[in-house]
TrEMBL record:
Alphabetic keyword roster: ATP-binding, Cytochrome c-type biogenesis, Membrane, Nucleotide-binding, Translocase, Transport
MF terms in GO: ATP binding
Protein name: Heme ABC exporter ATP-binding protein CcmA
Parts forming coiled coils: none
Name of the gene encoding the protein in the UniProt record: ccmA
Originating organism: Reyranella aquatilis
Source organism phylogeny: Bacteria, Pseudomonadati, Pseudomonadota, Alphaproteobacteria, Hyphomicrobiales
Domain ABC transporter: 6-214
SUPFAM superfamilies: P-loop containing nucleoside triphosphate hydrolases
Amino acid sequence: MAPPLLEVTGLSCRRGGRLVFDGLSFALGPGDLLALTGRNGSGKTSLLRALAGLTPVHAGMIAWQGKNVAEDPEAWRGRLAWLGHLEGLKGDLTVLENLVFAERLRGGEPGDRLEWALVAFDLNALSAREVRTLSAGQRRRTALARIVLSQAPLWLLDEPLNALDATAQAALRTALQAHLAAGGLVIAATHVELGIPGPQRLDLRGGTPAERAA
Ligand SMILES: Nc1ncnc2c1ncn2[C@@H]1O[C@H](COP(=O)(O)OP(=O)(O)OP(=O)(O)O)[C@@H](O)[C@H]1O
């Protein structure tokens, strides 16, 4: 078995003064998919945000290749691609401009992969449209194209199937499987089955250890 790339140990997170989760530990290696499940408010988004460094952790450690990611937040940000409820796209830029902009922010040039990402999420016909004029599903497809372009080893996805039609869901599954087959890692919060064989599962129950044990 490959050694873990990502190790989460004893992670606790408070939001609004309340403990959302406490003492979470798990480890993932190359090609691992972790599905986060749990009721509304159980802490799935909070865990993804904590992993992405967007929400502070109260206790515990996140390590990548054995090194605490808090020691070099910039390097950590470069290793992950984040898809939240809000896509974080620039409304006044076109689909194409958004993808190029995101790649340049990461210090790269999309090159040939740009065409591939546009085709993968059926965005060619929309590439010159300003993102603010797109439907929810079209915006989601643009955000997913940005994720696959990123070449980040760890994808953190919050309800990635939301707003996607059947064709776009199939495109996402293909992209996820290619990423995992190439040794990438995925952590996805989801209320529905992702349709990828053999995910690991972490069922969040929220609250204090005593509440979780009840
Ligand atoms: N910005 C915030 N400030 C204070 N509390 C928050 C904030 N965001 C979320 N919370 C609280 O943190 C807890 C976990 O919320 P979170 O969004 O992580 O749940 P979730 O499992 O992703 O839920 P859902 O399935 O509804 O998306 C909830 O009790 C929620 O009310």
